[in-house]
Amino acid sequence: MTLAWADTPHRHRHRFEAGLGGAQFVKVATDADAADDLRREAEVLRLLERRLPAASLRAPRLVGWSEGEGALRLEAIAGEDLGRRTRDAGLLDVAASAELGAALGELHREGRDAAGELGTPGSGPVGVHRPTPGDMSGFSGGALELLIALQRSAPLCAHLNRLCVPLEPQTLIHGDVRLENVLVGGSSGLRLVDWEFAGAGEGAWDVALAMGSALGAWLSSIPQIPAVPPERLLGEAALPLAGVRPGLAALWLAYADATRGATSLRRCLDLTAVRLVQLAVEAAGESEDLRAAYIAHLQLAHNLLGRPDELCDGLLGLPLTNG
């Protein structure tokens, strides 16, 4: 029995189905690119089940992939996405953040020997400050204005040039660890969903994605008032930094513990800055105007890269030497 259809921003539609085997979450591609994404997700989930038993418990169970339908069937998972929970509560849940850090560490430990089996790399830091003419043809007015502002910052662009260079793949990464892809509150514990961007990559990128998602939620919650700089409205944020900071610290400490300090906090913060720039460009792409929140993303990225010791303490409450 089909329960519901819905459109998603990932070029597929989804529905819930109820049957004798239990509820299923079905994603159906709407074009060839989306079918490739879902085929990839099925491949990743098979790899997790076959080679990464602990990490597979943090992912949905694959029920089946139908090439003809372009349909991916997964177990339906009870839970609330961490993005919604964070916005509703006005804080980033510390326990859930620690569980996420441990889950990512578990994935990266187990995934070192299996990452190469997927054949193509996962997502990673890319130079959004250097778009091709083809990229720019689809830019909105807001994205073009943001790009101009970004390219005027020579120090920030220099940092991005340094960081947006692919490293040798280290392990299997999820590749899309935004808060909305983290389900919490269910009986089976924290689960990571939407694995189509998984592949061989740098473990620190997954952590940076999670940190960038939380910091972006904070910046986006600051009200926009014409002619008033965002920094003067920090106290009005619906999701205050004080509500995010303990969760960010818990995320990092759990990850560092799970990976035995294999990744430096400085590297994670560098990549978090890259992610903030990406998020600003993504958000501006949906607007014809340059909003203060987008500039705030760039400013925070610039500060993270230029004053890492100070910003590490302010954002995580931890010294940069920790990990």
Description:
- It is built from twelve helices and ten strands.
- The protein has helices at 32-51, 53-56, 82-89, 94-110, 133-136, 141-151, 154-163, 203-220, 241-258, 265-284, 292-306, 308-316; strands spanning 2-7, 12-17, 24-29, 62-66, 71-75, 80-81, 171-173, 182-184, 191-192, 199-201.
- A five-stranded antiparallel β-sheet has the order 1-2-3-5-4, with helices on one face. Strands 6-8-9 form a three-stranded antiparallel β-sheet.
- Helix 4 packs parallel to helix 9.
- The protein has two domains: 2-75, Phosphorylase Kinase, domain 1 (2-Layer Sandwich); 80-316, Aminoglycoside phosphotransferase (APH), C-terminal lobe (Aminoglycoside 3'-phosphotransferase, Chain: A, domain 2).
- With 323 residues, it is of the alpha+beta class.
- The model is unreliable at 1-9 (pLDDT under 50).
CATH class type of the largest domain: Alpha Beta
Provide the number of structural domains: 2
CATH topology value of the largest domain = Aminoglycoside 3'-phosphotransferase, Chain: A, domain 2
Q: How large is the radius of gyration?
A: 20 Å
CATH architectural category of the largest domain: Alpha-Beta Complex
By DSSP, the count of extended strands is: 10
Q: Please, how many helices?
A: 12
- Mean pLDDT rating: 89
Helix content: 40-55%
Instruction: Name the CATH superfamily classification of the largest domain.
Output: Aminoglycoside phosphotransferase (APH), C-terminal lobe
Major sheet size, sense and barrel closure: 5 strands, antiparallel
User: Taking strands numbered 1, 2, ... along the chain, how are they ordered across the largest sheet?
Assistant: 1-2-3-5-4
Low-confidence stretches: 1-9
